[in-house]
């Protein structure tokens, strides 16, 4: 009997199974990554009092944290492509926790920038991006729903972390609160541990077939082989790129990057400054912190619902336009609520903001996956986050500077709203006018025939020729 060798087939997304456990881990990681920079804002009043700084100075903490979350994207992509998702997430959980624990011992605002901002932000980035990659690995048909459910982690954690932070700051001060938050971030390590790589099934190949295929491959002319003294060198398999910049050739991706850069200039501004605004209007501290919980409660239902709608057969091909509607809705909410000063008016704003913000959060990465497919998602996500980091770093501090200069919160709502409206209109217009027919990249588009395909064709032609020869002899 001839021996056989085992080859591993390319893994196919199971759309379930262990993927649901992975989804739970993504839910927790997304919750910490997006909610934590906003929930930290409940400590700003105490920090302003202890360090004698203004709104823009404290807003830099959240901005740096978000900038690290986005700006570390290319580095995270390289690490994931080299080491895999699980080790990177374990390291990220340790860094995020160490950053907040170190921040509890700081003595000035600059040290806070380096610990709570830079170190914690990098740790969250090393958790966030691999979790999104794992969703694309485990889900295909149910991917819009999976993205919506994972994105729901942000509002759930925002609803919990904001009032929890207010309780901690009243009971233990901001230093004790930071220390406890650092301990909570260790849960990211647990989420990283469950990110099991998806492996394909083993396929047995008879040794004789493998030898014949190898012999035919050697007989076929090599397209990339080079002649050296009459000896042809065999083609080496291409090495996997740690960061593939070729994805930027896609016009749809360039449009998406420009739109997202404009989006992040104003998307996080209302949530970061909302608590301080309410406190300045005379709202009690706990009621002011509860405003973020209202956004979170509405967002909890908005994201999964939007994910279900995005998965419908007649909606999925038009997700970029659906995303544009969500951006315009969010921008109109900011602009129309600029003059709200009463607590009830702020509550109404939080309801509509939570709904529109949830739509944006549920759709943003589904749009990106639809553009580049699962194969190029890791590199594309890293590059997109890098560009977004610049906008995140500029947006909230600029809004804080406006408040410090004019003592008027109305301006930041107009600023944030106009940026979201601009992004929504630009994305819809560019997608309609400049991109043409959308090409799906989820299935590989092979430009040149593979060597194995040539071998199969050669075998098939040889069999046909042999059968024809036998028929001729019989006749």
Write the layout of secondary structure elements.
Blueprint: E1 4-8, H1 19-39, H2 44-51, H3 55-71, H4 73-83, H5 85-103, H6 109-138, H7 143-151, H8 153-184, H9 187-193, E2 202-206, H10 207-219, E3 227-228, E4 231-232, H11 251-266, H12 269-280, H13 285-310, H14 319-336, H15 343-372, H16 377-406, H17 410-433, H18 451-474
Antiparallel strand pairs: 1-2, 3-4
Helix pairs in contact: 1-3, 1-6, 1-7, 1-8, 1-9, 3-6, 3-16, 4-5, 4-6, 4-16, 5-6, 5-8, 5-9, 6-16, 7-13, 7-15, 8-13, 11-16, 11-17, 12-13, 13-15, 14-15, 14-17, 16-17
Keywords: Cell membrane, Membrane, Symport, Transmembrane, Transmembrane helix, Transport
Domain Major facilitator superfamily (MFS) profile: 19-435
Protein name: Monocarboxylate transporter 3
Question: What does the model show?
Answer:
With 475 residues, this protein is mainly α. It has one domain: Up-down Bundle (Growth Hormone, Chain: A), CATH 1.20.1250.20. It is built from 18 helices and 4 strands. It has helices spanning 19-39, 44-51, 55-71, 73-83, 85-103, 109-138, 143-151, 153-184, 187-193, 207-219, 251-266, 269-280, 285-310, 319-336, 343-372, 377-406, 410-433, 451-474, and strands at residues 4-8, 202-206, 227-228, 231-232. Strands 1-2 form a two-stranded antiparallel ribbon. Strands 3-4 form a two-stranded antiparallel sheet. Strand 3 and strand 4 (231-232) form a beta hairpin. Helix 11 runs parallel beside helix 16 (377-406). The radius of gyration is 26 Å and the shape is globular. Mean pLDDT is 78; it is low at 222-234 and 437-455. One of its GO terms (cellular component) is basolateral plasma membrane. InterPro entries: MCT, MFS, MFS_dom, MFS_trans_sf, Proton-linked_MCT. This is Monocarboxylate transporter 3. It is found in: Basolateral cell membrane. Residues 19-435 form the Major facilitator superfamily (MFS) profile domain.
């Amino acid at each position: 009997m001839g021996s056989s060798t085992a080859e591993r087939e390319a893994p196919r997304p199971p759309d379930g199974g262990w993927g649901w456990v992975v989804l739970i881990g993504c839910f927790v990681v997304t919750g910490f990554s997006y909610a934590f920079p906003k929930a930290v804002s409940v400590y700003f009043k105490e920090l302003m009092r202890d360090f004698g700084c203004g709104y823009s100075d404290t807003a830099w903490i959240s901005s740096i944290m978000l900038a690290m979350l986005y700006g570390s994207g290319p580095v995270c992509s390289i690490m994931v492509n080299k080491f895999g998702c699980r080790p990177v997430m374990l390291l990220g959980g340790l860094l995020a926790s160490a950053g907040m624990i170190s921040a509890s011992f700081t003595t000035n605002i600059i040290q806070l920038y380096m610990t709570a901002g830079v170190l914690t932000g990098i740790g969250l980035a090393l958790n966030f991006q691999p979790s999104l990659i794992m969703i694309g690995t485990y889900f295909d048909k149910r991917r819009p729903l999976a993205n919506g459910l994972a994105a729901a982690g942000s509002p759930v954690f925002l609803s919990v972390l904001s009032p929890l932070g207010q309780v901690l700051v009243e009971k233990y001060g901001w230093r004790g609160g930071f220390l406890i938050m650092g301990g909570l971030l260790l849960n990211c390590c647990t989420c990283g541990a469950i990110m099991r790589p998806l492996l394909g099934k083993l396929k047995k190949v008879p040794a004789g077939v493998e030898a014949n295929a190898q012999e035919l491959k050697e007989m076929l002319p090599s397209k990339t082989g080079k002649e050296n003294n009459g000896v042809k060198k065999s083609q080496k398999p291409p090495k996997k790129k740690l960061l593939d910049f070729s994805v930027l050739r896609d016009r749809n991706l360039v449009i998406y990057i420009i739109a997202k850069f404009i989006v992040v200039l104003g998307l996080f501004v209302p949530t970061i400054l909302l608590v301080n605004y309410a406190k300045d209007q005379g709202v009690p501290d706990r009621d002011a912190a509860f405003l973020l919980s209202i956004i979170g409660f509405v967002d909890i239902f908005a994201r999964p619902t939007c994910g279900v709608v995005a998965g419908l057969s007649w909606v999925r091909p038009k997700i970029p336009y659906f995303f544009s509607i969500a951006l315009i809705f969010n921008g109109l909410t900011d602009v129309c609520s600029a003059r709200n000063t009463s607590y009830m008016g702020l509550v109404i704003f939080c309801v509509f903001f939570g709904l529109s913000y949830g739509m944006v959060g549920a759709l943003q990465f589904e749009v990106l996956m639809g553009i580049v497919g699962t194969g190029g998602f890791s590199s594309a996500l890293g590059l997109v986050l890098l560009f977004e980091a610049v906008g995140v770093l500029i947006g909230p501090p600029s809004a804080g500077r406006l408040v410090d200069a004019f003592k008027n919160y109305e301006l930041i709502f107009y600023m944030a709203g106009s940026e979201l409206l601009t992004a929504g209109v630009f994305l819809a217009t560019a997608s309609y006018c400049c991109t043409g027919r959308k090409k799906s990249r989820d299935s590989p588009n092979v430009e040149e025939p593979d060597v194995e395909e040539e071998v199969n064709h050669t075998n098939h032609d040889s069999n046909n020729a042999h059968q024809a020869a036998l028929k001729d002899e019989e006749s």
